[in-house]
Amino acid sequence: MAGKLIVFEGVEGCGKTTQMQMTGEWLRSLGVAVVTTREPGGTELGVKLRRLLLEKTEGETIADRTELLLYAADRAQHVEADLKPNLKQGKIILCDRFVDSTIAYQGYGRGLDMHLIHQLNQIATGGLESDITLWFDLDAEVGLKRKRRSGEIADRIEQEEITFHLRVQQGYAEIAASQPQRVKKIDASLAPELVQKQIQEVLTNNLQF
Ligand code: Z5A
């Protein structure tokens, strides 16, 4: 495949969305063909799954394994209908969350079996991996505070207790330590311009546009 898949990962409020936009603008200014997408919700079906996954529901709670399967279904559709076609066309894809979110949230956060998660990720992606994953390293409590300050209504996962978010944060740190070639740490505690500077350095040093 000719294109490149660049994934943005991290805890809530780490600044992924802000930085994806800035990165897109920077790459376009260099004449690079860029598309942006996200999980869950990168396809029409995914938008419906995202609503099911993140809206708070009265009464019935979503079981952990159901949640895992819904994220996997979203990903399988995203890979087939969006990521693979764009990569074939040589596009640079900026993707808000991918397989490491499932490892961090459903694996470290929910405590689901890692072997099962890896198997499902494999099925959902058909083996597609990111060319590079930018991990926005930020204290989970700082991220949640940023989100609260933004005034957005907290979704189902954000409302989990702080220990859940701390496990997710730890998960990302372990993923990054185990795959330093693919996962690059970005200090997300700095001002947006300084975070963007790190991203541009990492992408310039690791990818050829
Ligand atoms: N999830 C899962 O469990 N398993 C999976 O496999 C997948 C996902 C794929 C939706 O993700 C949820 O799905 C997520 C994990 C779960 N859990 N929740 N909730 P999402 O990515 O759509 O939602 P999110 O993690 O809450 O991201 P977000 O709301 O889009 O936040 P963000 O992208 O990290 O940050 P932001 O929107 O750029 O910034 C947040 C605020 O901080 C905003 O007011 C900014 O102006 C401010 N900000 C941004 N940068 C800075 C800096 N540098 N300094 C200070 N303030 C800043």
What does this structure look like?
This protein has 209 residues and is an alpha/beta fold. It has one domain (4-206): P-loop containing nucleotide triphosphate hydrolases (Rossmann fold). Helices cover 56% and strands 13% of the residues. The chain has eight helices and five strands. The protein has helices at 16-29, 44-54, 64-88, 99-109, 114-125, 140-150, 162-178, 192-206; strands at 4-10, 34-38, 92-96, 132-137, 183-187. A five-stranded parallel β-sheet has the order 2-3-1-4-5, with helices on both faces. The longest helix has 25 residues, at 64-88. The mean pLDDT is 95. Bound molecules: ligand Z5A. Ligand Z5A binds at residues 12-18, 39-40, 54, 71, 96-97, 101-102, 105-106, 146-147, 150, 155, 157-158, 191-192, 195.
List the SSEs and their pairings:
Blueprint (H helix, E strand, L loop, with lengths): L3 E7 L5 H14 L4 E5 L5 H11 L9 H25 L3 E5 L2 H11 L4 H12 L6 E6 L2 H11 L11 H17 L4 E5 L4 H15 L3
Parallel strand pairs: 1-3, 1-4, 2-3, 4-5
Helix pairs in contact: 1-8, 2-3, 3-5, 4-5, 4-7
Bound molecules: ligand Z5A.
Task: Summarize the entry for a quick read.
With 209 residues, the protein is of the alpha/beta class. Helix content is 56%, strand content 13%. Helix 2 (44-54) runs antiparallel to helix 3 (64-88).
CATH C-level name: Alpha Beta
Mean pLDDT: 95
Q: Characterize the main sheet.
A: 5 strands, parallel
Measured between the Cα atoms of the first and last residue, the distance is: 14 Å
The beta-strand count equals 5
How many separate domains? 1
Query: CATH superfamily, please?
Result: P-loop containing nucleotide triphosphate hydrolases
**Would you identify the CATH architecture?**
3-Layer(aba) Sandwich
N-to-C SSE string, H for helix and E for strand: EHEHHEHHEHHEH
Biggest sheet strand order reads 2-3-1-4-5
Q: Any low-confidence stretches, pLDDT <50, length ≥5?
A: none
Derived from helix and strand composition plus strand pairing, the structural class reads alpha/beta
Task: Calculate Rg over CA atoms.
Answer: 16 Å
Number of helices: 8
Small molecules in complex:
ligand Z5A
Helix content percent band: 55-70%
- Beta-strand level of the residues, as a percent range? 5-15%
